[in-house]
TrEMBL record:
Protein's organism: Kribbella amoyensis
Keywords, sorted A to Z: NAD, Oxidoreductase
InterPro entries: 6-PGluconate_DH-like_C_sf (IPR008927), 6PGD_dom2 (IPR013328), Mannitol_DH (IPR000669), Mannitol_DH/Oxidoreductase (IPR050988), Mannitol_DH_C (IPR013118), Mannitol_DH_CS (IPR023027), Mannitol_DH_N (IPR013131), NAD(P)-bd_dom_sf (IPR036291)
Domain Mannitol dehydrogenase N-terminal positions: 34-282
Protein name: Mannitol-1-phosphate 5-dehydrogenase
Length: 494
């Protein structure tokens, strides 16, 4: 607890921080950027940047500092905060008992806002000192067609980057142009490390980027396919949106005026395929699991944790809750989640080396129920069109093929359709946040007269609207949500 006025976070004030605040024990002047990272948001700063900061505090990886890059208009705010604080920010771990554990992270040593100076970004990426380019660009950032699995070039930024002589504006545009420059200069390619929540994220990144490159330069695409490494990874740490209350608590209790701190849960996990084209940081020395095959861990996380987030968020919101911890302190919802995980999610998983799945599932409920994290259901409900097809529908399809139950997963899809009607059970408006918002809401508002309208979109659901078992389970759940509401519908599953 501090009794002094809060000071703006920056290098000059690190020495004045209280002993309860962790800080870089290394000389940041000695840190050199070796990683260019696209998508410096809360998750990256709570996860990958934190692991590198740990290494640096052990006197290692000082040539693996991060140069962040923002390509979207809304990234300007991050650029401003990073410039004001010399890349420093506070990571606050929120324990269930109310304890806050703050640490100033120093591994981000530069930040470039690409629209202001695209050439500076390309020069940094083409520099031989850059050996890894990493991504947290969200599930939708890979431009994957949800049904065909091929590159979707309809995104305007992507289409613009395919014009002859275009200055890059998208992540794909920057990556491919930087690789072209390295190839022309005889510089070894960097490793492209995806850290997003999509199955086979490394495989997907490789497929989409080479498809994009092929449209620009087939010869370059062949070189990328042969020479560039794309390790798969599984990343996990619940990182809610930072609130004004979080900033105020940091200022009041620890004397830190931070323009954009990050809050997160205590749990963190990173499983990474040891498939790099050159050097890499010694991640394994700070708890990262380096493995030959990430897929079992990845499927476990996507189909249990991520799909369970979808299973609780729409139903919880419709039932009147607004935070994940509220839902997971309600036995009705907890029982539903555990039964989904046991009967529908788990049967689709291969063996997961070294993991007690039963313990993992109960640990998930404990993590979701952490009242200090205050993860909003609105955050979990956002961008569902990028999430449900990747996290939940594969479970539905595998269960259907095997002749096993899909009732709970079908209810989750129905709850999404009901949520997308944009009005809750009390008649209050719901702000649906999704890149396909208009199409989703327009379809959902016809749910009453045509119960199949929402799932009849082949771009999201493929041919599931033609599967009798799924249709029966889905329409039954949707009717129940309309007639009885979310809570009574869940009670019928108890």
């Amino acid at each position: 607890m501090t009794s002094t006025s809060p000071q703006q976070l920056g290098p000059a004030h690190l020495g004045a921080l209280g002993t309860e605040v962790g800080r870089p024990e290394y000389d940041r002047a000695e840190v050199r950027a070796g990683i260019v990272h696209f998508g410096v948001g809360g998750f990256h700063r709570a996860h990958q940047a934190m692991y590198l900061d740990r290494l640096m505090n052990d006197g290692k990886a000082l040539d693996w500092g991060i140069c962040g890059v923002g390509v979207l208009p809304q990234d300007r705010r991050m650029a401003d905060v990073m410039a004001a604080q010399d890349g420093l920010y506070t990571l606050v771990v929120k324990h269930p008992d109310g304890t806050l554990e703050p640490r100033v992270i120093g591994s981000v040593v530069d930040y470039l806002f690409a629209p202001d100076d695209p050439e500076a970004v390309l020069a940094r990426m083409a520099d031989p000192a850059t050996r890894i380019v990493s991504l947290t660009i969200t599930e939708g950032g890979y431009n994957v067609h949800q049904v065909t699995g091929e590159l979707d070039t309809s995104d305007p930024a992507l289409a613009a980057d395919l014009e002859p002589g275009a200055t890059p504006g998208s992540v794909f545009g920057f990556v491919v142009e930087a690789l072209a420059r390295r190839r022309a200069a005889g510089v070894a390619p960097f490793t492209l490390m995806s850290c997003d929540n999509i199955p086979g994220n490394g495989h997907v990144a490789k497929k989409m980027l080479t498809a994009f490159a092929r449209l620009k330069d087939p010869e370059l695409a062949g070189w990328i396919e042969r020479e560039v490494r794309f390790p798969n990874s599984m990343v996990d740490r619940i990182t809610p949106v930072t609130t004004d209350a979080d900033k105020a608590a940091l200022a009041e209790r620890f004397g830190i005026d931070d323009g954009w701190p990050v809050v997160c849960e205590p749990f963190t996990q990173w499983v990474l395929e040891d498939e790099f084209g050159g050097d890499r940081p010694p991640y394994e020395e700070v708890g990262v699991q380096l493995v030959q095959d990430v897929e079992p861990y990845e499927l476990m996380k996507l189909r249990l944790l991520n799909a369970s987030h979808q299973a609780l968020c729409y139903l919880g919101y419709l039932a009147g809750y607004r935070y994940a911890h509220e839902v997971c302190q309600d036995k009705l919802f907890v029982d539903f989640l555990l039964t989904y995980m046991d009967d529908e999610g788990t049967p689709t998983l291969p063996p997961v080396p070294g993991v007690d799945l039963d313990r993992y599932k109960h640990q998930l409920i404990e993590r979701f129920a952490n009242p200090e994290v205050r993860d909003t259901l609105a955050r979990l409900c956002a961008e569902s069109s990028d999430r449900i097809p990747k996290w939940l529908l594969p479970v539905v399809r595998e269960q259907l093929t095997a002749g096993r139950t899909i009732d709970r997963a079908a209810l989750v899809v129905a709850s999404w359709a009901r949520y997308a009607e944009a009005v809750d059970e009390q008649g209050e408006p719901i702000e649906v946040v999704d890149r396909l918002r208009d199409k989703l809401v327009e379809r959902a508002q016809h749910n009453h007269e045509d119960p199949l309208v929402f799932i009849s979109d082949p771009d999201l659901f493929g041919d599931l609207a033609q599967d009798e078992r799924f249709v029966q389970a889905y329409t039954s759940s949707l009717a129940s949500l309309h007639e009885r509401g979310a809570r009574a519908t869940l009670e019928s599953f108890a």
